[in-house]
Structure formats: structure tokens, C-alpha cells
Specification:
The complex is a heterodimer of chains A (about 270) and B (about 625). With about 270 residues, chain A is mainly alpha-helical. Helices cover about 40% and strands about 0% of the residues of chain A. The longest helix of chain A is centred in the first third of the chain and has 24 residues, at about 1-25. Chain B is mostly helical and about 625 residues long. In chain B, about 70% of the residues lie in helices and about 0% in strands. Classes of the chains: A mainly alpha (about 270), B mainly alpha (about 625).
Chain lengths: ~270, ~625
């Protein structure tokens, strides 16, 4: 019986140590919830909002950034794809059907092997086959208007003329059901979740530790300050935090309503 | 008292096991018939994609009757809503399914692995005519027998849980896999038959031709068990990398295609190796428990030897396991870069830091047990001075493996370190450093084993000095090669070469293990023994290393099982069948590890209870033997 108890105590202690380590010593990152299905008001969409939708799809639902980033080197960077698209059409290796830059970018998303940038093909295929998934099917499942939004985003990013047309008709019921990307957030908590503020800040129940704690920020800062801190984060640096940590583009990412909701929320957090 | 008198004959409990197994078999046998919709009154809100999209029947549709008939037999994956998932007050369906599946898997891994090495040990016993091997093989299989019925119980619980909480999912899977489920049920029956004949016929088939028949039954038991696992693996991997269905999840009619999906073979290999390592560790824990409870030096000697053998099996399988895991991960990337990056670069990345701690614990405890084992030999004094250096290298490698890529820090810490990445420690966080560390750790663990193996021997061959020199040269060359590959290709070239160089690192490690083992076996053939090995002369603390090994293995399996399943994210079947249940979210690491810990506590409680029962029944048997 003594051995039995000793062994039980030892085993439980080991298990509890692992549980403690995983809970207390490892940062608890809250994964994004499954995509929410929401309705989209396409009738009143402006080109700025459409580009914004493309930005959000690129960094969110499209999961493009997983590979097209400067860290991993897994896929070519797309900052200038709006510019180089026309040049690719003249490349002797190009075997697609596109006639314009816009068509080339669309084709590269729905038929990735039409042209593979040198060095980024599937191993052993001599860059004839792309490892990229078709973005309109499978786990990504972008709708045609979302593909167009991403093209508009690329063109705007490269500084070329935006040739994509805004969607003229309301999307089908199925489109509406799935298009969650550009839906404006309905509450400050949704804004926090949508833009991942909690990854760095303590806010709305999230426990980020890289940036200042915002749970009582309203007691110290007024709305003007808070608005500026979102739009131009390097304008004022909180003591003890290095400059340049916060992405500077929330000013163009957040919709006006979302920004105001967030600022109100922070101002009331006392 | 002879050890053979400890053998417990359990006819009444055998009947109970048989009844449980028969019940499970009957249950599994009926499962494929659940394909029929009337078995599933729950989930009436389910809308199948084809039904939703199907227009009213037209003459042309009638003309296409034959092609449509195919779609009627194999419906697309249903589009479920929250209300299609039955709720039972006070019970969370996902946690219930999670724990039932995990407990089933732990016990199943154990009962599939033990017959593999029991077969090998029995064959060694036959070849060497050393009865100790036969006794030990019998005791191993005895331990797994109780676990066999518990495996069946948890398997049944899992199926019931799926019927109650995920009826539409089960219906969809049964719609595709029903022939394999039927085969599974038959094979389960065959496995039970093989196991019971193998175990209960052990003493009746001890001599002559009967022994050969017995060994053949052991071989059949392994074949049937392995095929069983491969079938279950097909279901699991289909959920991760579906094949043989179209984009809507409509089965295209070729059973081999859905079985032979992209991740089937990598998982098959990984699970076979991991099961052996795991089975060895649990049997090692059993031997440790018996060692600690032993009252005579003869018992201590027997269970020391059993623990050593079990640990040897566990470590032998542990060494190639990272390579099988590497292949599996590479295939996940090859199937879907998204899934691969979710696994290694997304929210799951931190789980690999926990994995590093666990594998570090496995390696350290295994090495510690080997070092303690040197006390059995008087010749070990020649090598004990090297242990501290080996320990230093292994701990150093563990720390590299353990270094995270990005640290979550307080603002003060962030400022002090100069940004999110430390100047010197930052580079240790990426895979090339970790690949280098794990390969060196494996090589030094192998070195520990080699020292242990030769500590009681003196080579008598004329070329012993040359052999030693060659071995040292192979070790040195491999370590330099691994380090250079890791540093140069890891930091000074692009990603493609980083990945490719890891293959050469693995090849270096395998070269060391295989070539040095061959040289060692030849060099110590006919070697002189320093003194007889003193089995049983082990400190009690060494036995806790075996427990640490078993508990860490169990926890690690639970964690990795969670990751394997969770990288599907909000999909029942990745990309074709979405999970719309209220529990479709990916939990935080803390949440997941709490569930894993609860599962491990339940598992260990049952296992230790089985050991304790074995102790009680053994005492009874001893008492009867004295009478």
C-alpha cells in the first residue's frame, strides 16, 4: 500500500507540474473564433471600403499572409504584384489565358500553376507546379467579390490604377451567408477581436502583455488622445514601451464607426 | 519459491473480458447499418448541399437517372447548424468525445504495442532456449490483457458519445466507411480470438511444435492488430486530408482512395513506432511498481531485468520517432501549407515548447535510468566519469530545443532585452537550431546506451583499439556535420535549404546509430565479462525514472493528439464538412492541457489500479502455492 501511495503521489505531481507549466508559464493566446457568418451591405460599398475588404481578406480569411510574408520565404511577396502583373504576361514561361494585369492576378488565385515565380514551385517540378491552394475552394473558399477585393487591394498597394469594378449586384444568398470579412463590427469588443488588439494589450477581457494595459486607460486619457493613439501610435509613446511596436495602419484599417466605438469604449474604461 | 508460481490464472475474469469484448464486437458490427437515415431521428434540421441546390425534378433529370443515383447513395457532406448538435444538460459533448477518444487511444496503443515485443521476446526465448525470456513475455502479455477489455469499453463509450452528440457526423462517416467498419468489427473479433488463445494457451503450447503454433498465433495477433489500427487511422486521416470525395464531400465510390489519403501512411508509421515506445514505457512502469513492491532479491532481480528490457524497447522506438514525426509534419505541409503553418507557426506553435519540455523529460529520465543501471556492473567505473559530460550536453540541447522563438514579456523585460527577439538567444528559437539540438541529443543518448552496454564487457578482438577509434571518428564527424549543416544552411541560406539540410542531419544521426552498433556487436562478440551483472542492484529512485517516462509519454500523447485533431480547426472533415457546433472553437493551450491532464489522471489511476490488483492477486497466488 505504501508503494501504491508513493507511486500515485509521484505520478499526480508530474501531471500537475505539466499542467501548471502549460497554464502558467506559456502565454495563453486565444485563437480566433471560427468565421462568423454575417450579412454584407454591398449596395453602399465604396471603393475605399472595397480595398479595405481586400486588405482584411488578405490578412484574414484568405490566409494569404501565412506564406506571402517576408519571414518564411515560402511564397513571393505581393506588395508590387499590381505592377509586375503586366510584365509576367510577356514572360515566355507564362502559360495562362490572362490578357490584363487584373486578369493575371485573378488567374494566379484560381489557377496558381499558370505562372510560378522562379524558386517557388513544388519541389521536383522545375517551377511548373505551384504549391498554392486554389483560393476559391477548400478551406479558404473565397467568393468572386472577395477575389476582386483582394485584386483592388493589390493594385492600390502597388500604386497602379484600380481596374476592378465594384460589385454591381447584391451577392447571392450563399455569398451573403459566408461573407463575413468586411462586415463592420457591432460593438467595441468585436472591434478588439476583429483587429487583434488583445494580442498586445489587456483590453476587453484579453490579456496581451506587449503593449500598455488599457483596462483603466479612460481614467488617464481623453478621447482625443485615444483616437490619436490608434490612428498614429507613434505620436505619443507610453513610458516604458519602445516606439514602433504598434502597427501604424489601424487608421486606414478601422471603419469610422468602429474607431469611434473603440475610442468610446476605452474612454469609459476607468 | 519459484517465480513461475506467481503466474495468476484468471479464468473468471477472462470470461468477463470475453463478454465485454463480445458486446463491443456486436456493437461495432451493427454500426455500419446506421447509414440508414431512420437510425438518426436527431438532427432533422440538417440540410444537405445537394438537397438545397436540387431543382424540382424535370424530365431531363429523370433521363440522367443513373448518374443521379450515385449521388443519392453517397450524399454530400451535410451543412449543419447549431441545433443539429444534440445537447445534454450538464455534459459537454466535445469534452466527453475528447476524453473517450483519448482514453481509448492510450489503451489501444498499449495493447497493440505489447504483442509486438512479446512476439519478439518469445522468439528470442525460443532461439536462445532461455526460459527467462518466455516468462517475461508471458508477464508482458498478462499486463496488456486487462487493458484490452478496458480498450473495448472506452471504444464503446466513444461510439456512444458520437451517436449522442455528433449523430450527423457519424452518419456521414458511416456512409463512406461502412465496409471498413464492418471489416473492423470482424477483425476485432479475430484479434480477441488470437489474444485469448495466445494468452490462455501459453502454458499448453510450451514445447515442440506446439510452441511454433503458439508463436504463429502471436504473429497473427500482431497482423490483425496492425490492420485494425490502419483502418481506424484511415478514418482519422480522412478527416484531416480527405481524398476520394469531391469538393462537397460526395464520396466518389472508390474505397481505396478514401483510405489511402495523403496522411494515412505517415500516421500509420508514426503510430506503430510511437505505440511500441509507449507500450515499452507502460510495461516499464509496471516492472518499476513490482520492483518497488518486491520482497525478495529474486523478485527484485526479475523486475529489474524486466524494467531494463521495457526501457530498452521504449528508447529504441523513441530514437527514430522524431524522424517519423518529421515526415508526418512534412506531409502535412505538402498536403496543405495552410494546415502546416497553422500547426507550426500559428497558435499551436507554443504547444511545441511544451512538447520540448516533455521530450526533454523523456530523454533525461531514460538517460538517468541507464546511468543508474551502470551500478549493476563492477566494470562501469571505467565509464562513470563521462556521465557528467553527457548530462551537460543533453541538458544544453534540451535548453536550445526549449528556447521559444518569440517571448511574451513585460514592457520592462522587452526594453531590457532590446526588442521581441534577444540578440543571442533569438536565433536559437528557430527550427535549424532545434533540429541540430535534437540530433545531438539523440546521438548522446545513444552514447549513454553504448557505454551502458559495454560497461560489463572487455573486448577481446585484436582490432578493438581500431574499432574504438573508428567509432569515435564516426561520432565526431557526425556531430560536426550536424552542427555545420545547422548553422550554415540554417542561417545563411533560404528556407528551401533549411528544410533540405535537416534530412542530412537525420541521416548523420542514423549513420552513427547503425554503423556504431554494427561495429560494437562485432567488437564485443566473445567479449570477457568483468563480473556477473547484479540484477536488482538498483536504487529505488531509478524506478521513478521509469514512472516519469510513462507519465510523460502519456501526457505527450494526449497533447500531440490534441494538436493533430485541432489543426482541422472548425472542420469535421477538413474543407468539406464544417463543424458548426457551439464547441467548434479552438481552445487555448491552458484549456486543452487541463483536459489532457484530467485524461492522464484517469488513465494513470486505472493503470496503477491494475498494477495494484495484479499485486493482490499475485499475493493470493503465492499464498496458494505455499499451501
Amino acid at each position: 500500500m505504501k508503494t501504491f501511495l508513493k507511486v500515485v503521489i509521484f505520478s499526480v505531481a508530474v501531471i500537475l507540474f505539466y499542467a501548471f507549466y502549460a497554464n502558467e508559464m506559456i502565454p495563453q493566446v486565444k485563437p480566433a473564433p471560427p468565421p462568423v457568418e454575417a450579412k454584407l451591405d454591398m449596395g453602399s460599398l465604396t471603393m475605399e471600403q472595397f480595398i479595405q475588404m481586400g486588405d482584411t481578406v488578405f490578412h484574414g480569411k484568405g490566409t494569404c499572409e501565412l506564406c506571402h510574408n517576408p519571414v518564411g520565404g515560402r511564397a513571393p511577396l505581393l506588395d508590387q504584384v499590381g505592377k509586375v502583373a503586366e510584365e509576367r504576361l510577356k514572360d515566355p514561361r507564362y502559360k495562362g489565358k490572362a490578357k490584363t494585369g487584373e486578369e493575371y492576378i485573378r488567374e494566379s488565385m484560381v489557377e496558381p500553376s499558370a505562372f510560378v515565380v522562379v524558386g517557388f514551385g513544388v519541389k521536383g517540378t522545375n517551377d511548373a507546379q505551384s504549391p498554392m491552394p486554389v483560393v476559391t475552394s477548400g478551406a479558404i473558399g473565397l467568393k468572386p467579390f472577395e477575389v476582386d477585393a483582394v485584386i483592388a487591394y493589390f493594385q492600390q498597394k502597388a500604386g497602379v490604377t484600380i481596374t476592378v469594378q465594384l460589385p454591381k449586384e447584391a451577392p447571392s444568398a450563399d455569398d451573403e451567408e459566408k461573407a463575413h470579412v468586411a462586415a463592420p463590427a457591432k460593438s467595441a469588443e468585436e472591434v478588439v477581436n476583429k483587429y487583434g488588439c488583445g494580442a498586445c494589450h489587456k483590453i476587453a477581457g484579453q490579456q496581451g502583455a506587449l503593449g500598455p494595459d488599457l483596462t483603466k486607460i479612460g481614467a488617464k486619457r481623453n478621447k482625443d488622445y485615444l483616437r490619436r493613439a490608434v490612428i498614429d501610435p507613434n505620436a505619443d509613446i507610453a513610458p516604458g514601451f519602445p516606439a514602433g511596436m504598434m502597427p501604424p495602419d489601424f487608421g486606414v484599417k478601422l471603419l469610422a464607426g468602429e474607431l469611434e466605438m473603440l475610442v468610446d469604449y476605452m474612454a469609459k474604461s476607468k | 519459491m519459484k517465480l513461475s508460481s506467481l503466474v495468476v490464472r484468471e479464468t473468471s475474469s477472462g470470461k468477463r473480458r470475453f463478454i465485454v469484448s463480445l458486446f463491443f464486437f456486436v456493437f461495432l458490427f451493427t454500426l455500419p447499418f446506421f447509414k440508414s437515415a431512420e437510425f438518426f431521428p436527431i438532427g432533422t434540421n440538417t440540410v444537405y448541399a445537394a438537397e438545397q441546390a436540387a431543382p424540382a425534378e424535370t424530365p431531363s433529370a429523370k433521363e440522367e437517372g443513373k448518374s443521379e443515383a450515385k449521388k443519392e447513395v453517397y450524399p454530400p457532406a451535410p451543412k449543419l447548424t447549431e441545433s443539429d448538435y444534440p445537447q445534454v444538460k450538464g455534459i459537454n459533448g466535445r469534452i466527453m468525445a475528447w476524453l473517450a477518444a483519448q482514453l481509448h487511444l492510450w489503451f489501444a496503443a498499449f495493447v497493440l504495442a505489447v504483442p509486438i515485443f512479446v512476439f519478439v521476446i518469445e522468439a528470442i526465448g525460443m532461439a536462445t532456449k532461455d526460459e527467462r525470456y518466455d516468462r517475461m513475455a508471458y508477464e508482458f502479455i498478462k499486463v496488456s490483457l486487462t487493458a484490452y477489455s478496458i480498450t473495448a469499453v472506452f471504444g464503446g463509450l466513444l461510439v456512444f458519445t458520437l451517436i449522442v452528440f455528433y449523430p450527423d457526423f457519424l452518419k456521414y462517416m458511416a456512409g463512406i466507411f461502412s465496409p471498413t467498419m464492418l471489416a473492423y468489427a470482424f477483425l476485432f473479433f479475430a484479434e480477441s480470438a488470437c489474444l485469448y488463445i495466445y494468452y490462455y494457451g501459453w502454458h499448453a503450447m510450451e514445447k515442440g511444435t506446439a510452441k511454433w503454433i503458439h508463436l504463429t498465433i502471436g504473429w497473427m495477433l500482431n497482423v490483425v492488430g496492425t490492420v485494425l489500427m490502419f483502418l481506424a487511422n484511415a478514418w482519422v486521416t480522412f478527416m484531416m486530408s480527405p481524398h476520394g470525395v469531391d469538393a462537397n464531400g460526395v464520396f466518389e465510390g472508390n474505397m481505396w482512395h478514401v483510405i489511402h489519403n495523403h496522411l494515412w501512411n505517415p500516421i500509420n508509421l508514426h503510430r506503430v513506432i510511437a505505440n511500441v515506445a509507449y507500450g515499452g514505457s507502460v510495461v516499464g512502469a509496471y516492472a518499476a511498481y513490482k520492483f518497488l513492491s518486491a520482497r525478495t532479491s529474486e523478485e527484485r532481480a526479475h523486475y529489474d531485468w524486466m524494467g531494463y528490457t521495457a526501457n530498452f524497447i521504449a528508447i529504441s522506438a523513441l530514437l527514430p520517432l522524431p524522424f517519423a514525426g518529421y515526415w508526418l509534419t512534412a506531409e502535412i505541409y505538402a498536403y496543405s501549407q495552410q494546415m502546416g503553418i497553422t500547426l507550426m507557426g500559428g497558435v499551436f506553435a507554443w504547444l511545441f515548447i511544451i512538447q520540448a519540455v516533455l521530450i526533454g523529460a523523456l530523454f533525461l529520465s531514460a538517460n538517468y535510468y541507464l546511468w543508474c543501471g551502470m551500478e549493476r556492473s563492477k566494470g562501469a567505473v571505467r565509464y562513470t566519469k563521462y556521465i557528467k559530460y553527457i548530462a551537460f550536453v543533453i541538458v544544453g540541447c534540451f535548453l536550445v530545443w526549449f528556447t521559444p522563438h518569440t517571448l511574451i514579456m513585460t514592457p520592462g523585460e522587452l526594453k531590457a532585452i532590446g526588442g521581441p527577439y534577444h540578440k543571442y538567444l533569438g536565433p536559437l528559437g528557430i527550427m535549424p537550431a532545434k533540429n541540430t539540438a535534437v540530433n545531438i541529443m539523440l546521438i548522446f543518448t545513444f552514447l549513454s546506451f553504448m557505454l551502458y552496454r559495454r560497461c560489463n564487457k572487455i573486448a577481446t578482438v585484436s582490432w578493438a583499439a581500431t574499432g574504438n577509434a573508428i567509432q569515435i571518428a564516426i561520432f565526431a564527424a557526425a556531430i560536426i556535420n550536424i552542427a555545420v549543416l545547422g548553422v550554415y544552411y540554417g542561417y545563411f541560406t533560404n528556407t528551401v535549404y533549411k528544410v533540405a539540410s535537416s534530412v542530412l542531419q537525420v541521416a548523420s544521426t542514423l549513420t552513427v546509430i547503425i554503423s556504431c552498433m554494427i561495429i560494437d556487436v562485432l567488437m564485443f562478440k566473445g567479449a570477457k565479462e568483468v563480473a556477473p551483472l547484479q540484477w536488482g542492484k538498483m536504487p529505488d529512485r531509478s524506478q521513478y525514472a521509469l514512472f516519469l517516462l510513462a507519465v510523460s509519454f502519456t501526457w505527450l500523447m494526449g497533447l500531440m493528439g490534441f494538436i493533430r485533431s485541432a489543426i482541422r480547426q472548425h472542420w469535421h472533415v477538413y474543407t468539406v464538412f464544417r463543424d458548426n457546433s457551439p464547441d467548434a472553437f479552438t481552445p487555448t493551450i491552458g484549456y486543452a492541457t487541463k483536459i489532457v491532464s484530467v485524461g492522464v489522471i484517469i488513465f494513470m489511476a486505472i493503470v496503477i489500479f491494475i498494477f495494484w490488483l495484479g499485486q493482490i492477486s499475485a499475493k493470493k497466488s503465492v499464498s496458494e502455492a505455499h499451501h
